[in-house]
Amino acid sequence: MKVLFVDDETGFLDVIIKRIRKRDIDASGVSDGEQALERIAKENIDVVVLDVKMPGNRNGIMILKEIKTRWPLIEVIMLTGHAMLEAARAGMDNGAFDYIVKPVDIDELYYKIGDAYKKKTLQEAKHK
Fold this sequence. Notes:
It contains five helices and five strands. It is an alpha/beta fold.
């Protein structure tokens, strides 16, 4: 299972990737949506954990829409602060698998990633 984290807070990104890798998940990270799209185009990513609030001219919801358009089987978990819950719900309306609120509970995140991966593998099996 390959997981891509997308968050402009590099300190958070480093910590969360280390913690997820300790659970034997192949995790990597990028700091903006454009980098995420480039990485997804080159690698076989299963699950994206995407921050709603992103720098640049495209926010997390816009990146989510592009991911779901170009790679509909990739599951996306939206990452949000308490003040951004409406944006997380908008993500769900646009095809996100789920959302998680910062500060992240690592166990909750781990289980959501696992559930998202299971959904993706089931969808892939249907499309073969």
